[in-house]
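Subject: complex prediction, re-run

Hi both,

The earlier run crashed halfway through, so I resubmitted it with identical inputs.
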Amino acid sequence: CQKDLLSALPTTDIPDTKAFDTPDRIASQAAGLYSVLKHGKFMGGKVLIANEVRGEDYTNERSNNVTLFATWKMVATGESQEVKEIWSQGYKTINSVNVFLAGMNAKGTSVAGKEASDSYIGEAKFIRGLSYFQLLQLYARPYINGAGNQPGLILYWEPHTVAGVYTRARSTVAESYSQIIRDLDSSETLLPKEAATATRANAFSAIALKTRVYLYMGMWDKVITEANKLVPATAPFESDAGYQLESNLRTVFSGKYTGEEAIFTLPNSEATNDFPGTQTQMAYYFNPAPLGGNREYNLRPEGIIGDAFWKATDTRRKLITTASGKNYMNKYISPDPYTDYIQVIRYAEILLNLAEARVRSTNALDPQAIALLNAVHGRSDATTIFTAASFDSPQDLINTILKEKHIELLGEGFRAMELTRLGLTIPTKSSIIPPTTPTTNNYVWPISSDELVYNKGCKDNY
Amino acid sequence: KVSDESGSPLPGVTISIPGGKSGTVTDAKGIFSLSVTTETKTLRVSFVGYEEKVLQITSDNLGSIKLIPDTKAISEVVVVGYGTQRRTEVTGSITSVKGATVATLPVQSFEAGLGGRAAGVQITVPNGVVNNPPVFRIRGTNSLSLSAYPLIVIDGVPTFTGDVGSTSAPLNPLSSINPEDIESIDIGKDAAATAIYGSRAANGVVFVTTKKGRPGRPRISYDGWVGISSPNRLPKLLNARQYLEMKNEGLKNAGNANTYVPTLDAKGDTVDTKWMDVVYRKQAVSQSHNVNISGGTEISNYYLSAGYTKQQGILRQNDFIRKNIMLNLNQRLGKALSIGGKLSYSNENSLISGASGSLEGEAFASGGLARLAFLTSPIVAPYNNDGSYNVDDGYIGGGDNVLQTGIYNPKVLLDLDRSNVESNHIQANVYAELKPWEWLTLRTTYGGDYIFMNNDIFENAISGDNAASNGMANSIHSDYKRWIWTNTAQFDKTFNYHSINVLIGGEQQRDQRERYGLQRTNQADSYFNNTEGGWINDYSSDLLRRQNYLLSSFARVNYNYREKYYVSANVRQDQFSAFGENNKKGIFYGFSAGWEITKEQFWADSKLSEVFSGLKLRASHGKVGNLAGLGDYDALSLYRPVPYGGDPAIYYYQSGNPNLGWEVSKKTDVGLAFGLLNNRLTGELGYYYNNIDGLILQVPQAPSAGIPHTNTTSTIPVNVGKMYNKGWEFNVNFAAINKKAFSWNTSFNIAFNKNQITELSGSELTSIPFVTSSLEQTSVNKVGYPAGMIYVVLTKGVDPLTGRRIFVNAAGEDVYFDPAAQDKYKYADGKIASPVGTKDAVAYKNTNPKVLGGFENTFRYKNFELNVLLTYQTGFYVYYGSYAGMKDQRYWNNSIDVLKRWQKPNDITDIPRVVNGDNISNGSSFAIAANVFKGDFLKLRSVGLTYVIPETAVKPLHLTGAKVYVRGNNLAIVTKYPGPDPEVSSNGNNASGQGVDRNTLGNGRTVTVGLNVNF
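This time it finished cleanly. Structure:
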C-alpha cells in the first residue's frame, strides 16, 4: 500500500499552508487581490453596468433578467441575480483582503520584507476601501439621507477561513464611510508616492479615490484638500504626480489604456481567465452586434445623448455608435473576449470632483471650478469656453458641472450613484417605469436575500 | 452418451456411483464408460449448471442421457461482495433481478430498466435525453450534498457513475455494459448486505455479474431489435393567431403602444410555426444487435460477446451509439489453482447539438432546446423567405416586429452545433484463486476501469451563445482511471451441524482524473467547425488533475447451525485521502441473524407446516458510510492561479474543513421471507430504519463573511446533518397457474418510505435552500421535513375583481400584484406592500415518493408469452417550472391555458390579467405554489409479447431456438400531473433538488420489435 497517497496535495492549486512561503508567491497573492476585485460580477463589469442601467440613459433590448432587466426596470429584489452576485463578490474581495492581511501579519511580512509588505498591505487596504465604497452606493441609502445615519454595510476586518456562523449587524452609512476613509488614509501612507502603472494602486490612487468618497459624503472641504494633493491650482492642470488629460478621450477608451489620465485601472488580457465571464462584459452589454456586442442596452434618444448641452461637434459623441437606427455607448471597443481595461479612476473625474467641491464650498462662481470645467469640456469641445458670465448662479454652475460629468463619465458606472448621492430623483426611462423618488423603496437596492437568510443580524433596507 | 437438452454432446460431465469412490467424466463427444459391479443400482450424473440426475441402471436408459439446465441453481446464488452465498443462507436484505429482465429493453444502461422490479428501488428517468443517468435511489434519499447514487460493483470492481462527460450530451459510464451481457443484478439494501463495502455502502450496493461461459458445446446467440420512439404528452401552445391576440392584449394592458404583427411567408400566408415539430423527432429510430458465443468444459469456460446499438432520442440530433465487446475467461490449472479474467471494451458516442436544457445546471441555458421549443414565438419562421436562416444579431429575427420574438433560432442550433462526447471505456480484471485445501480459498484480483473521453463542442457564429464571439469550438480530453487490487482469504468449514465461513481481505483503490481542453473562438471562416480548423483566439479550458486513494481492510464471518440459525458479521476499515487530516479513518460494520422457522420441530409438528414451505426471519444492524461525490480536495483550503492583466497571481479560492469525515448511516433491518404452497407463492416483508448522522452539507455561509465561492452563496462542507429513512417493503411472487399449455406468473412489490431531516447545523441553521441551475430557488432542506421540499411562494389564485395574482407573504398576508401599476404590490385594502419574493417562500410540498413499486404479470400460452409491467409512485409533488415559462408575459409563447386569462370583473380563473413584460404573476421570477402539482402516477412501463418459434420450424435452419418479440415502453400513464412526465428531474441526481421540472425534455414512448436466435 502507498500510505503517502492518503495525504497527497493537489498539484494545480496551492494549499493555504504554503501560500506565504516565498516572496514571489506573496507578490502573486497581492496581484490576486486585484483579480478578485476585477471579477465581472464586481468591478470588472456588473457594478458599472448596474449603475449605468439604473440611470435614465438606456433602453433594455433583451428583457433578460440575467442581464439586469429587473434592475433597469427598477424592480430588482433581494433575490435578483445581480443583487446577490455583486454583494457576494464584493464581500469575497473584502475577505480576500482580510485573509491576506492576517497572513502577512502572521508570516508574510517576515518573508517578503518590510518595504514590499507595506506596499502590498497598502494595496490591499485600497482594494477593501474601494469595495466597501462601491457596495455602499448600491445597497445603502446615500449619506445625504440623514447624514449617514441610515443602515450601511456589514464591516469586517478579521479573516474568514472556516465554516462558522457569521452574524453581524450593519454599521451605519457614516461608520461605513469612516472605515473606507481609514483604509484609504492608511493606503496613502503605506503606498509609494509615484505614479507607477495604473493597474496597481499607489498613494495617488488612494488620494484620488478619497476625493470621490468625500464628495459622496458632501464634505466639500475634504474633497478640496485631497484633490489639491494631485491637482495644481491652474490650467492646464498637469499634475506633479504625472497625471494629465489626454487630448482625445478616445485614447483613454482605446482598449488597454494605462496612460497619464489613468489613475486606477483594471486590466484584462486575452489570457485564459483574465477577462470577464459570460454576461458580465461591458462591451457585450452596450455594443451592437457588428462590434461584437449583444446589444443588451441602447442609448435612449431622450437620455443625455438628446441633451442640447452636448453639442453635435463634441468629440465625445464619437464614442457613441449607431446600428439599425439606434445609438450605442461605445467606450468599450474590444470584441470577445472583451479585454477592455476598466477605468476605475481617471483624472477627468478628479478635476470635476474638485470643481464641484469648490463651487459648493465657496458658493460662488469659483474661477478655478470654471477653469477645471473648461479643461474637461474643452478637450472634447474646443468651441465652448465657459466664463463666469456663462452662469446665472453658483447652482447653475454646479448643474453644468454635473451635466458635464454625466456626459464625460457616461458608460463608466457612475450615473445612478451620481444621482443618489445628491438625493435626486432617478428619472423615468420607459412608459412602464415611473420616476424613482428618493423616498421610494427601490431608490437603492435591497440587501441580498442570501445575506438575510444566513446572517440574522442583518436587516433589509425596507 | 450425455447431451444437453438440444441433443448436443456435453463433455466433462461427472459420472459417479453414489456412496462410492469411482467415477469418470465424459469425453469430447459426451461419451463415457464406467465399469460397475452388479450391486450398483444407480449412477449420479452431474455437471455444473445442469440439474443433477440419479439414474437407475437398466440396460436401456444409459444410451442417451439428457441434462436440463439448472436455472434454479443460478437464481439461488446471490452475490454478496467478495463472494457469493446461497439464497437460503443470506441474512441481509438483497433483491435479485435477472439479467434477462433488462436485456432487450430500449434503454442505454441496465439500471434504467430496474424501475418497479425490486421493492424499495426507485428509478426515475429524468428526461428524454438519451444516455442520461437515471435517478437511482434505494430506500429513499440517503444523502443531501453528496451523491445518493448506490455503489455499482461490476464483477467485483466498483465502477464510475453519474454523468462523466463534459458536454451537453450526457455520458453514463454504466451504459458501457451491454445489458445483454448481464447475468444477474443483486441489490444489497441493508447494512448486513453492504457493510463489507464500508464507507461507500450507505446508498446501497448493486452487484452486477456479467455472463460466463458454461460447460457444454459452443452456443451462439443473436439478439436484435429495432424500435421507434415518439414524444409524448407535449404541452399545447398558442398558434400564431392566438399569440397575436394574447400578446397584443398584454401590450395594451401595459400601456405599451407597440403591437405584434404577423409575418408572411413566401406564398403570402401567415407564418405559424410549430416549434415543437422543429425541435422534436416525430419518430426516433433505434436499433440494437448483440451476438455472443460461449461454452467450455469443467476446467475452462469462455464467454465472448459483441454488441452494437444506435438509439435516437426524441430530440433531434440526440443519439447514442455503442459498440462493445466483452470476453470472460476462466481456466483451472491443476487441482488447486484457477485463473481467469474479464476484458470489456466499449466505444460510446453521445451526440447532441447543444443544451437540451435538461441536464443538471442547464435548466436556464439560453439555447436550451426544450425551452426554445415552447418559448419561441409562432409568428416567426426558422427561415427567411429567401431561404436563409431567420437570424438577427445572433437572435431569432422578428420580421416586421420591433419587439423580441424569441431567443436563438433553434433550427440553427440543431443544424450547425454539436456537443458530443466519445468515450472509450475499458473494464478489465484478472484473478488467481488458490484452493490448497477444501476449506481454504486464497484469491487475488486486480481490476481496472479506464474511461478516455473526447468531448467535441462546436457553437456556430450565427445564432446562439457564441454568436457574439463569432463561433466557438472546444475539444476536451478527459481521463478517468481507476485501479483496484483486492486480496482475500476465505475459510469454509462444516462439522457436525455447524457451518462456518470466514473471509478476511485487504484492498486498495486509486482514482486519477485528468482533463484538459482547447477552446477556440472567432471563426476564421464559416468553413471551419472543429477545434483544429481556422480560429483567431485560443484558450485553455476545463483543466483538472485530481486523485484519490482508498485503503481498506475487511472481514466477514458467517455461521449457521443446521441451516436453521444463521449469524453473520462484517467489518471494514477504510482510509480515504479526500477527508480532512483529522478524520481520514473510519470503521464500519454490520451484524445479522436469521432463523429458518420451518426447520424447527414445533413448526413441523404444527398444521402451519402444511401451508408454509418456508418461513425465515432475519434481522440486521450496522454502520456504513458514504463518500460518493465528495471532491478530492474539499477538505483543503486552496489558492488558485489566475492571471492579473497578464501577470501571475493567485487568489484565495477555497475554504476547506480539516475535520471533514464520513457520512455515517446506521441501518436496522428486519425481514420475514415466506414460501407457501410448496413455494408457488413466495414473498418477503421487510422493515428498515436508516439513521444518517454526520451528513456532509455544503453549509452556506453568510455572503458578507466573504468565504470564497464560485456561485452567489459560499459554502463549506461540514458533517453536520442528520436524517432518517424508514419504511416497509413487501413483495410477493405467485405462480398462479402452471399448466402445460398456459401459465400465469404474477409479482407485486410495494415500498413505503418516510424520509425526514432531523438536524442541519445545530440550532443556528434549520433550513438550506436549493437553487436550480444557479438561478431559481426551488427547493429547501429543512429540519422536520423530507429532503428537497419544494420551496415556493404561496398563491391564492387570481382576484376575480381585478385579475391580479394574489401572493401570500412570509407574514401570511395576502398581497395583490399588479404588473401595470406604479406600486405593484398592495394589500387588499389598497395599502402598499413590500415586494413578494423568494424570502416569502415556504417549504410547500414533499418530492420523495411515499409509496412506490411495481406489478408484473407474465402469461404463457403455448408458444406465446405476454409480459406486462406496471410501475407506480405516489405521495409526492412536482414543481412544474416549465409551466411558469409557458405563462410568461414577455415575448414568450404560451400554453393555451393562457386563453383562459382574466379579462373582466368576476372572471374566475387562475390565469391573471395579461400584462406585457409580466414575469412575476405566473412564476418566472420566483417559484410559486400555483405551478406545483401532484406527481402520483401509474405507468404502463412495459408490455412485451414474445412468440417462441416451434422447434419443428427452427430445426431445419440448424437453430436450437428462436423467438420474436414486440415490446412497448412507457405506453400509457395515469397521472394528474399536467406536464409531459412526473418522472422528471431538472437537477439530475442531486438529492436536494428532486421533483423539479424546469425546461426539461419529456420522456418518449417506444415500441420495438426484436428477434432472438440460438445456434
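Strands of chain A lie at 14-15, 58-60, 262-266, 297-299, 320-323, 326-329, 342-346.

- K.
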